[in-house]
Amino acid sequence: MLQVGPWDCERQALKESENAVDRPLALVRGERLVEGSIPIQRHFAYCWSGLLSRTEERDNREYSLLYNQPSVLVGSRTDVASVSSWLAPVIWEGTFNPILIDSIYKQHNLTIATTVFALGKYTRFVKDFLESAEQHYFVGFRVHYYLFTDQPESIPEVKMGENRSLTVRKVQSLNRWQDISMSRMEKLEKLIENELAYEADYIFCLDIDTKFYGRWGVESLGRLVGVIHPWFFDAPRDRFTYERRPESQAYIPAGEGDYYYAGAAFGGLLEDVHQLTKTCKEKLLIDAANSIEAVWQEESHLNKYFLLNKPSKLLSPEYMWRGINEKAAQIKVIRFSNVAKNYAEVRPNP
Ligand SMILES: CC(=O)N[C@H]1[C@@H](OP(=O)(O)OP(=O)(O)OC[C@H]2O[C@@H](n3ccc(=O)[nH]c3=O)[C@H](O)[C@@H]2O)O[C@H](CO)[C@H](O)[C@@H]1O
Ligand SMILES: [Mn+2]
Question: Is 84 among the domain residues?
Fold first, then answer.
């Protein structure tokens, strides 16, 4: 007589849906894995996906995470490079599994310091930046924002989630936007040196005239992290707007360079970003003493630094896009983007 157990019924039902692959990931109890067949494991994965925290609280036994087998033969993206020639990963949508990577980093109890500057009329960008960050940026992780401004009184109240905080620092007003932009390097150097050592593990330094539209999470963490500039990701390097005058410390000769990196976002471990900001500040000072200002200010120096000190991780332009309405075939998700601004109106000088 044919024995039909409860597992067989479930197995049958699941076989039918087996081709609807890409089920959400979930924690599954270890002993079920031995008992069930593959479709049954998937079934549990699916059914339990909403219950992770509750089952974890209830039961301290070991859990394993179910997900599609990673292939060593086929990359998940074939239209873009997901690794540099020095073997730094390039992070694109589809190259990582958000739930898996979150579960790995969750165990480490990390704090991500995040710096922004809003001087003069740029205070108008603060509200959208912070509100959108609360929705998309390292959700579920500890984030400490540091906001530097010449007008602390005009910084709006933004409701922060659990384990998230904002520190506002007053800084001196400056007359030229170029000086505001460049002065960030020194402020960051000092912040890391004087305050962050016991406060944070990683730091990201971001432009404020921006907004988050999609996940920016732990997949972005690395020792030294650069973001590929959205206007140059598909350009040959002779078109990159590197500083081309040998008199500047930011000089990069024709025929050299890897990528063109955005000045609007970089990060990494405190120590590595400290070294970066300190070096860029020193080079900016040497340039100033020689009466030369690099064509894209600190962004030019950042590009020189990254040429000599290769980032250990690269973020695709999904992490610093041109604008929410701008499209490119390779950009499947806009995570963080410039917001439109009238340069003449918002900047203190041309
Ligand atoms: C997408 C990108 O990579 N943007 C870079 C680019 O132009 P951007 O046009 O993005 O520069 P920007 O005007 O946003 O200035 C950079 C940042 O300086 C701050 N700020 C500037 C002016 C001001 O009046 N008040 C104020 O607070 C603010 O945080 C702003 O986000 O080149 C700049 C340097 O030339 C920086 O490297 C920017 O990061
Ligand atoms: Mn900007």
Answer: no
Q: Around ion ligand 2, which residues have CB less than 5 A away?
A: 207, 209
DSSP class per residue in 249-295: TTB--TT--S-PEEEEEEEEEHHHHHHHHHHHHHHHHHHHHTT---T
- Assign residue 280 the CATH number of its domain: 3.90.550.10
C-alpha span between 343 and 19 (Å, rounded): 52
Q: Is 263 found in the same domain as 220?
A: yes
E strand intervals along the chain: 26-29, 63-66, 90-91, 111-118, 142-149, 164-170, 202-206, 210-212, 224-228, 261-269, 313-315, 336-338
Quick check: is 21 in a domain? Answer: yes
Is 111 among the annotated ligand-binding positions?
A: no
In a domain, 72, yes or no: no
The predicted pLDDT at position 30 comes to 34
In a domain, 306, yes or no: yes
Residue in 145, 206, 207 to alter for ligand 1 test, most ligand atoms within 8 A of Cβ: 207
pLDDT tens digits for range 42-59: 333 332 333 333 344 444
| Chain segment 204-246, per-residue pLDDT in tens | 999 999 999 999 999 999 999 999 999 999 999 999 999 999 9
